[in-house]
Amino acid sequence: MAPHSSEPLCYTTRSPTETRRLARRLARGLQPGDLLCLRGELGAGKTTFVQGLVKGLGASGPATSPSFVLVHQHRGHLPLYHLDLYRVSGADLTEIGVDDLIGADAVVVVEWAERLPPRLCADALQIEFEFVSGNNKARKIVIQGHGARGRQVVENLAAYASSRA
């Protein structure tokens, strides 16, 4: 029986450019219906990562934090919905239609994903962002796949990284 979660991949990026580059690399392996659950403190690099995803998916428009709009849609060769749940409570999730977005024919990336019901993240990528002490631009980024699809995306990313080494 396969484990529920993949072994996490750990990266250290030393600049916003490196963070966006990692996200572009990850974007190559994404498919419609993929869910990325981003977690980390304010300023830890979540929106910068989304900027790389948008670019990697060939989507349009600048990726900015949708804190007041809640959802941004980017169209490209693969559409992307970008949600920021920083100011959202559980009751608001129903009004936004989060259940309808997840599993749609798009990639869905959620900042502050700890506000999502756990059932929604059962088959997803969990991406944690941490500050690296002593360097205000460096970030530790840990990517872990949950469920069959999440594990597959992480395995593909690990294979890509090892083929480039």
Cα radius of gyration in angstroms: 15 Å
From the N-terminal CA to the C-terminal CA, the straight-line distance is 31 Å
Q: What is the tally of helical segments?
A: 5
Class per helix and strand makeup: alpha/beta
- Count of β-strands: 7
Count of separate structural domains: 1
Provide the helix percentage. Answer: 25-40%
CATH architecture term: 3-Layer(aba) Sandwich
Low-confidence segments: none
CATH class value: Alpha Beta
Q: Numbering strands along the chain, what is their spatial order in the largest sheet?
A: 1-7-6-2-5-4-3
Question: Approximately what portion of the residues adopt beta-strand conformation?
Answer: 25-35%
What is the residue-mean pLDDT, rounded to a whole number?
83
What's the SSE pattern? Answer: EHEHEEHHEEEH
- Gross morphology is globular
Write down the CATH topology: Rossmann fold
Biggest sheet statistics: 7 strands, mixed
CATH superfamily: P-loop containing nucleotide triphosphate hydrolases
